[in-house]
TrEMBL record:
Domain of life of the source: Bacteria
Protein name per Swiss-Prot or TrEMBL: Type III restriction protein res subunit
Species, as recorded: Pseudodesulfovibrio aespoeensis (strain ATCC 700646 / DSM 10631 / Aspo-2) (Desulfovibrio aespoeensis)
InterPro entries cross-referenced by the UniProt entry: Helicase/UvrB_N, Helicase_ATP-bd, Helicase_Restrict-Modif_Enz, P-loop_NTPase
GO cellular component term of the entry, any: cytosol
Residue ranges occupied by any Helicase ATP-binding domain in the UniProt entry: 61-265
SUPFAM superfamilies for the chain: P-loop containing nucleoside triphosphate hydrolases
Gene3D superfamilies, per database record: P-loop containing nucleotide triphosphate hydrolases (3.40.50.300)
UniProt-listed Pfam families: ResIII
GO molecular function, one term: hydrolase activity
Matches recorded under PROSITE patterns: HELICASE_ATP_BIND_1
């Protein structure tokens, strides 16, 4: 079965956390709580009830092109069914934007060996999943809805239709074949479609309305019209999950950045961009680039790679058509006809061809726009457009095809990790602006889009590009980029900006009443905000201009230690378990102390799961809060709940075991844990077994919460025993050191954009640091200290970050520095009001242990603004270094 990438796991975990909370406190409040504690977007995330569906979670998972949205959609089914819909076999309506994508999705979901289908079968079993194309819905039996997960794939256009025109759609029309379904449904809901006599129509939409499906919306940015809202109201969904790279009016719950895909080796980045004056030069550049890549590819001994050029021609009424491009390749570039394949709506020369086959001769694919739907070949390395990059259409979809990494694994040859683009433009600045806009439309953040565009040196026509390095960029040495200039309708308000920022900004009035703003050096966030406030209608254009300028400023800086290929190794705290040194992960602590929930008294105490028979409501603890859970309304119970009310104790316990299962609890112990909890509840006269069965999902949530509390207590006990007990065997080990990643570190986290330029940061970008405040002052002190060779802003919960164990979490010190004498200094900064808290004391204790076990090579400092000796941060750091 396909193994999910870490960003995909985090996306699904976010959805699960949100939906579980939405079930008990409502969609809007659950959303606001989640994004407050776990924001993933650099812009504010807010929730708006869509189409009047106030009780329906309506959220968007935002993933860039190439992020595996459809695979995630398959995994969303089980999560939504279990955590919010509370159905063993949810009904799914899967909406896609086009018929071609519909056909491809149906084919993939019906194929048992495909990862999309495997995701469903692994949870429900092969015989419990049925996939239906919208044209086959008459084949669905009533029993299918109760005994199987039914996935129905349709285009948005099939269901998105105005009230006055709905009879032309078969899904809305009366169909006698659906009569058996209505025999088992209440048929009383006010939103059902009826005939002129008031009788409920036997229509597919009326079935959906009563069964309340999970609706998955692929490419959700294409589903924003009023007709979409009317469609959703008729369907009456239980939950709506959108997936797209570019949401419009969506409640974005979780955002994944393109840099995260790069870190997971899913995509080729950066784009090596070359601008050309005309289409012949662009094609020549693409041919030469492919030739050079083809020479390098055999050096990748792990996998076969044949670089392919993807050329976007113009439509038939334009001068640079498919035929013109093909002719030019053959007559002027010496490309054999067998190397060229055309893939358009009329010419489908790729049909039946396996581009991954070593015997396949195709090296050039010419298209117009047909490849945007479903075509996928990770051998595509070079994109070439014969139209100006700013005016060409469907570029985003084609760039997405060029981005995919062969075999989803970083290649040993650096040039094979990049994507290449040859475009027509009068200047690199124009080409970069056009490409930047395209990457933004693919889900990139402004700054990461700019950072992933690199200019390739444009050589003279008579020079063979295949002899030139593919990484060579214009200019031998970095030089300060020219000022950023931008025209605004009025002068921005600079009064609130610090004088250090205003010093680098000039505002010049123009004759037409507008002003020209020139900015030298880095443009901080507060200046960007002021520019946008002066012309909010051009916010996206301003952000793009600023991002590209920032990228140019950063590219002009001297290479940092990481860019010079230096290593930064940090000794890690290790604990001896059964004769070997191990990282003190939570799982290791529980395993070493042989924890099991049965070590504790196991029973459901009053307040943990109480039933109010009059209100037919359960009250229980969830994450430290009292939650109310109302049994579903009679209509949903009647139509969807299976025979759970007829279960005996053992059947309920077995079901709870499957819901609560954890890798760190043996199944025998989990079964006994569930049995004891159920038994303690049944001892109370107020609750009967059938009632518990009807509320089995709420009961599972309460049991998982209790299990988490018991596990947390076990972790605290084990943490003290393994790390701080007299017999504990702990070591700060350089032989088991953490090596900060050579590149790609914390790329999804917003970069520092202040005026001050740090000189000794290990990476070219400082992440998660504001341009003012106490942590900024701490960073300044580290950067200025002559005994600090280099330092890293150590970002929380990022792959490759340094951490120390706490009893219930990981602790990521704010800064980690390498000293010139080889020692390592970790600094955690705390505001004065937080120093005395239990959290700070636990962090200080584990930091002191890491230092004590480091044989003088590890130093830990809990820094404050002014310590009890009256020293500021700079002197605290110096005092720790000198002892």
């Amino acid at each position: 079965m396909f193994t999910l990438k870490e960003y995909q796991k985090r996306t699904l975990a976010a959805l699960e956390t949100y939906l579980a909370s939405a079930r008990v406190i409502g969609p809007k409040e659950a959303f606001e709580r989640f994004v407050k504690t776990s924001p993933t977007d650099t812009r504010p995330q807010s929730y708006a009830h869509r189409w009047g569906l106030t009780d329906v979670p309506y959220v968007c998972l935002r993933l860039p092109t190439g992020g595996g949205k459809t695979l995630l959609a398959s995994h969303c089914v089980e999560i939504a069914g279990r955590t919010f819909m509370e159905r063993d076999f949810p009904l799914v309506l899967w909406l896609v934007p086009t018929n071609m994508i519909r056909q491809q999705t149906v084919e993939a979901l019906k194929k048992r060996s495909h990862p999309y289908r495997e995701a469903l079968d692994s949870i429900y079993g092969q015989d419990r999943v049925e996939v239906f194309d919208i044209g086959d819905i008459v084949n669905i039996r009533p029993k299918d809805f109760s005994d199987k997960v039914c996935v129905i794939i349709a285009t948005m256009q099939t269901l998105r239709v105005a009230e006055s025109n709905k009879e032309v759609r078969k899904v809305y029309g009366h169909n006698e074949n659906f009569e058996p379904h209505f025999a088992g449904l209440p048929n009383v809901a006010p939103g059902l479609d009826r005939d002129e006599h008031g009788q409920v129509l036997y229509s597919f939409v009326n079935i959906l309305h009563q069964l309340r499906p999970l609706v998955i919306v692929d490419e959700a940015h294409k589903a924003v019209s009023g007709l979409t809202g009317e469609m959703m109201q008729r369907i009456n969904p239980a939950c709506v999950i959108e997936l797209t790279a570019t949401p419009v009016e969506s409640n974005v719950l979780f955002r994944v950045y393109a840099s995260e895909l790069k870190a997971e080796e899913m995509v080729k980045l950066p784009f090596m961009l070359t601008e050309h004056d005309n289409w012949e030069q662009a094609i020549n550049g693409a041919v030469q680039t492919r030739r050079k890549l083809a020479e390098l590819a055999p050096g990748d001994r792990e996998n076969y790679i044949r670089p392919i050029v993807l050329i976007q021609a113009e439509k038939i009424n334009q001068p640079h058509t498919v035929d013109a491009v093909r002719k030019h390749l053959m007559e002027n570039e010496g490309v054999a006809e067998s190397e060229i394949a055309v893939a358009t709506g009329e010419q489908r020369e790729l049909d039946g061809i396996n581009l991954f086959d070593k015997t396949c001769p195709v090296n050039f694919v010419i298209t117009i726009e047909a490849l945007k739907e479903g075509w996928d070949c990770s051998f595509a390395y070079v994109f070439c457009s014969v139209a100006n990059i700013r005016s060409a259409t469907d570029v985003e979809q084609l760039l997405g095809r060029v981005m995919r990494m062969p075999y989803a694994k970083r290649r040993a040859i650096p040039e094979l990790n990049n994507a290449y683009a040859h475009v027509i433009s009068s200047s690199f600045a124009e080409a970069a602006q056009g490409m930047h806009a395209r990457l933004m439309n693919m889900g990139f953040h402004e700054d990461e889009a700019a950072a992933n565009l690199q200019q390739v040196q444009l050589v003279l026509p008579e020079v063979d590009l295949s002899a030139m390095p593919l990484f060579k960029t214009t200019g031998a040495t970095p030089s300060e980029p020219p000022p950023m200039t931008i025209t605004l309708p009025k002068a921005p308000n600079l009064e609130t900006l610090h004088e250090d920022v205003r010093e680098y900004v000039s505002v010049t009035p123009n004759a037409d009443g507008t002003v020209q703003v020139a900015c030298t050096g880095m443009v901080p966030t507060e200046l960007e905000t002021a520019l946008i406030a002066a012309n909010p209608k051009k916010e996206d254009d301003i952000r793009s201009t600023v991002a590209l300028h920032r990228a140019r400023v950063r590219a002009a800086q001297p290479p940092t230690a990481s860019q010079q290929g230096k290593r930064f190794d940090v000794p890690r705290l290790m604990v001896e378990v059964w004769g070997s040194l191990e990282l003190p992960e939570q799982e290791t602590i529980l395993l070493a102390t042989e924890w099991t929930p049965l070590k504790h008294t196991v029973r459901m105490e009053p307040g943990e799961f109480d039933y109010d028979e009059t209100a037919r409501t359960f009250r229980f603890d969830l994450d430290g809060e009292q939650m109310r859970y109302e049994l579903e309304n009679a209509q949903v119970q009647f139509s969807l709940l299976a025979s759970a009310s007829e279960w005996n104790n053992l059947e309920l316990v077995r079901w709870l075991d499957r819901q609560c299962r954890r890798p760190d609890v043996r199944q025998a112990d989990m079964l006994e844990f569930c049995r004891r909890c159920v038994a303690s509840l049944l001892e109370r006269s107020a609750v009967a077994l059938p009632t518990l069965c009807r509320a089995k999902y709420a009961l599972a949530a309460a049991l998982k919460d209790k299990l988490s509390r018991l596990r947390e207590q076990g972790l605290k006990d084990g943490y003290q025993l393994l790390l701080f007990a007299p017999q504990a065997k702990v070591e700060t080990s350089f032989s088991n050191a953490l090596a900060f990643p050579a590149s790609g570190y914390a790329e999804s986290i917003q970069a520092y954009t202040g005026v001050y330029r740090f000189k000794n940061h290990f990476y070219p970008l400082v992440r998660d640091l504001k341009s003012k405040g106490e942590e900024f002052e701490c960073a300044l002190a580290l950067d200025a200290n002559p005994q600090v060779e280099w330092w890293v802003r150590n970002v929380d919960r990022q792959q490759g970050s340094f951490w120390l164990p706490l009893s219930n979490a990981r602790f990521y010190p704010d800064f980690v520095a390498k000293l010139s004498d080889g020692r390592t200094l970790a600094v955690e900064y705390k505001g004065q009001h937080l120093v005395s808290g239990d959290d700070s004391k636990e962090k200080e204790n584990i930091g002191a242990l890491w230092e004590a076990k480091g044989n003088g090579k590890a130093l830990f400092l809990m820094a404050v603004k002014v310590d009890d000796q009256g020293r500021d941060v700079q002197r605290q750091i110096q005092g720790k270094i000198t002892g």
